[in-house]
Design goal:
The chain has 462 residues and is α+β, with helices and mostly antiparallel strands. The strands form four sheets. It has a five-stranded antiparallel beta sheet, sandwiched between helices. Strand 3 and strand 4 form a beta hairpin.
Length: 462
């Protein structure tokens, strides 16, 4: 250290402060006067930024700030009351011309009437990288690198607020890969993941720079397109997306086509909520799947009417479950040879708030979509088992074999279901063979491994 540099530190009051500045791992600077001239720069500057003390003494520290960061530093110092220390993160230029993220902690000092500012500068590049990584994880999908649901909703909300500044509309395209589960189950999840990544790249190539493509999870992607001319333009974009999906993929040594279904919702109303528009595109997607897949469907008034009806039905179901208005009726199953009733099938009904009995066709689809089918099934199963136990005690020995109850794939996939069903039978002392579990062909075709395990457990229990 030169004598001049050492004198720079000696001018500060207090041997403790001098010891602290010499011991710090960061760069120590002393700035004198209102012009901010560097009076002292510690030797550690050469290690961190490449500049020697001689390079910088007499210059102005702000000359090293990144142009975008200088206003932030100036604003921070402007709010300093002359007594308190300040801390600011910014980028400083090193001798090679690159910029390094640093934290500058500054404190004013008045020594014999001379205004000085002492700063300690720390390298925070690693901290910044960790922060950027955490932010990336919070805002992007790890598999595809696309924005996640949170960012997608934010951008859709901004797009809606910008409506009115142009004559265009905002369109939301809900994209789903057809039969993706088959690919996952037959070729493995690693192939499915590669396909999703490839699909994300392919979709990106067919969008404008102003469009946003995000992944909601699974095989679901969403496109937010601003300034579309009209609904026809949105449908045109959807069809281009579908055409892109039809081109063969080569993943994991396999070549195959993957068709897409797309639901489209559009609006010119800046007051619309982002979640509402996303829900509308989701409903249009379901219609595309119902009509054969590999196609695009536009949300319209028919779907809006269905959405309102669905909401009313969901509320009716929830109130029926909470107010004990689930009704179980029993259809006798007759042996054609003997003419005797051999068992009864439990059928669920709902008594609505007016007392009208609602048949399953009016509410089962909504119950499945809203997750209410499992508590509904549980209510029917408990009623049926209790009813069968009562019949068993009252009936003379006969050919009667108990009750049959329909069970969904979702219920079967619950690992706890077989145990709870058996416990229910044991609680009312009903022989296990008096319960017939019925599943549809569709349930068997789409059953997961866990659902098949549940069926086997029930069969083994009798």
């Amino acid at each position: 250290m030169s004598g001049d540099q050492d004198d720079g530190i000696e001018t500060l009051n207090g041997s403790h402060l001098r010891a602290l500045l010499l011991a710090t791992a960061g760069i120590v600077t002393i700035v004198e006067g209102p012009g901010g001239t560097l009076e002292y720069v510690s030797p550690s500057c050469e290690r961190m930024l490449g500049w020697t003390s001689a390079d910088l003494v007499g210059s102005v520290l702000s000359s090293l700030f990144h142009p975008d960061d200088y206003p932030v530093v100036a604003t921070t110092r402007a709010h300093q009351d002359g007594k308190e220390s300040t801390s600011v993160d910014c980028r400083l230029r090193n001798k090679d011309g690159d910029y390094l993220w640093v934290e500058i902690i500054s404190a004013p000092t008045d020594d014999r009437g001379t205004q000085r500012e002492v700063s300690v500068i720390h390298d925070i590049a690693d901290r910044r990288r960790r922060a950027v990584d955490l932010e990336s994880r919070a805002t992007t999908d790890a598999l595809t690198g696309l924005v996640n649901r949170t960012v997608l909703i934010d951008r859709l909300s901004l797009a809606l607020r910008r409506l009115g500044r142009s004559s265009g509309i905002v369109a939301v395209l809900y994209v789903d890969l057809d039969h993706f589960k088959v690919i996952n189950d037959s070729l493995g999840h690693h192939v499915g993941d590669d396909l999703l990544s490839s699909m994300a790249q392919r979709l990106s190539h067919h969008l404008r720079p102003s469009d946003t493509l995000g992944r909601l999870g699974g095989d679901e992607f969403v496109i937010v397109a601003e300034d579309m001319a009209d609904e026809n333009a949105a449908i045109g974009l959807a069809n281009r997306v579908i055409d892109a999906g039809r081109k063969p993929f080569r993943v994991g040594g396999e070549e195959f086509e993957c068709t897409l279904s797309v639901g489209v919702a559009c609006t010119a109303d800046s007051q619309r909520a982002a979640h509402d528009l996303l829900s509308e595109s989701d409903m249009a997607l379901y219609r595309a799947k119902d009509r054969g897949r590999n196609r695009a469907e536009l949300f319209d008034e028919d779907l809006r009417t269905k959405a309102v009806s669905r909401l009313v039905t969901e509320r009716m179901l929830r109130s029926a479950l909470s107010e004990d208005r689930v009704v179980v009726e029993y259809q006798p199953i007759i042996d054609l040879h003997s003419g005797g009733v051999i068992y009864a099938e439990a059928l669920v009904r709902i008594r609505d708030s007016t007392g009208t009995i609602r048949l399953p066709g009016t509410f089962l689809e909504v119950a499945e979509e809203t997750g209410l089918l499992i508590p509904l099934d549980a209510r029917v199963l408990a009623d049926a088992v209790t009813q069968a136990a009562g019949w068993m005690r009252r009936l003379e020995p006969s050919a009667f074999e108990g009750v049959a109850v329909n069970i969904t794939a979702r219920h079967l996939a619950d690992a706890a279901f077989p145990r709870s069903a058996i416990a229910l039978l044991d609680a009312v002392e009903l022989p296990h063979h008096w319960l017939h579990v019925e599943v549809t062909e569709r349930v068997l075709m789409e059953a997961s491994n866990s659902a098949m395990s549940g069926l086997r457990a029930l069969r083994d229990a009798g």
